[in-house]
Amino acid sequence: MKRYKKLLSLVIVSLFLTVFAIITVKSLTHVKYTITKEVIGGTDEQVTILNPQTFYGNTNLIQAFNTEDSVFCFFSQDGYLVDSSKVDEQFRYYFKVNKDIHFTAYFKTSENFYVIFLSGNDRVISFQEVAPGESAISPNFTVDLEGYQFVRWNKDFTNVNEDLIIKPIYSKVKTSYTVTVEINNQINTIKSYEGEVLEFEAPKIVGETSYFSHWEVNGKKRSISNVLKISIYQNLEIKAIYSYAPHYEEIIAYLNEKIIFSEDKNRIYIMGAYDVRGNHEITEVGIMLLPKGETNFNLENSQAIKFTAQKINEGKEFAIAIPKQYNGYLVKVYVVEKTIKNNMNEFNQIFTDYYLEIK
After folding, report:
1. How far apart are CA 332 and CA 308, in angstroms?
2. What is the DSSP secondary-structure string of 100-149?
3. Of the CATH numbers 2.60.40, 1.20.120, 1.10.8, 1.20.950, which one belongs to the domain with range 248-355?
4. pTM here?
5. Which CATH class is domain 111-173?
6. Contact between 301 and 291 (Cβ < 8 Å)
7. What are the backbone dihedrals phi and psi of residue 69, each rounded to the nearest 5 degrees, phi first?
8. Pairing relationship of beta strands 176-183 and 236-244 according to DSSP bridges
9. pLDDT per residue over 12-53, tens digit each?
10. Angle at 130 between CA 127 and CA 135, to 5 degrees
11. Which DSSP string do the residues of 81-93 spell out, in sequence order?
């Protein structure tokens, strides 16, 4: 029973909508609309409208006629240029009526040319009759396409020797964004535009214990390079993140004091205590050696001789044994530390240089 009532309700609603649609269509077909005209450069007699009062949905006709003094150029419908391919050789234009319509018919003298300036959506901005060899005048123009700005007209309209239809060339208006940058507690706000590429550089070391770790962009880790290049497509908050680590100059000074020899003078022991503080943990200490004149300490450099320090007690002392034959080599001390932050491991590597001297 319930199913039958539901089906009956659907049938009644469907019938109601059908009847309403039929009544609406019938009422529209009995509505008359007004077709009006305006003539520029000619006379009213040169333009006729078949039915100035026309029922909804009917086809109507507007037609223009030349005279010895004036020549038809084109129609506009409610201000917009009518496609010339829809106007036949007898200057007749057939159109469907579904509202009140206003036409403008444009004429010129036979010896002159016409220049039409259109908007981006073919609205007629200016109609000018120009003598051969003369120039048209650029009209005042307000851009009617949202998000775009006027650049120039698409054709030259000086020294006119033919009929011209001139259209605007637009460029997209670039959206501006705000970029806030914090480097070493210094905050700068920059106004930037969509698609622009900005570059920022953060110092690798601040003070004696802060080392550059990475960039954060809108709260997310972005790059571990201290130089950041970024394209702008939204508002951004950029921050250079620093982490604590002992200053490598302290390490060098300490290690220089601890250069000693084994009894047979064949090996040199560089010893040092590397203090671990805060949330940092040392994972590796070592050195790389290069002959004098070589400075490329890339870890993949095949010229580099690498030694890894060994922890020699339960404290934090490391020892590196260096064969005596490397006297005079350039030595780079490196320390790899693990920073524990937000349950994520981040690794920083610290480098410095000095020349090993054996007396």
Report:
1. 12
2. -EEEEEEEE-TTSEEEEEE-TT-BEEEEEEE-TT----PPP----STTEE
3. 2.60.40
4. 0.49
5. mainly beta
6. no
7. -95, -25
8. parallel
9. 666 666 655 555 545 555 789 999 999 999 999 999 999 999
10. 100
11. EPPGGGS-TT-EE
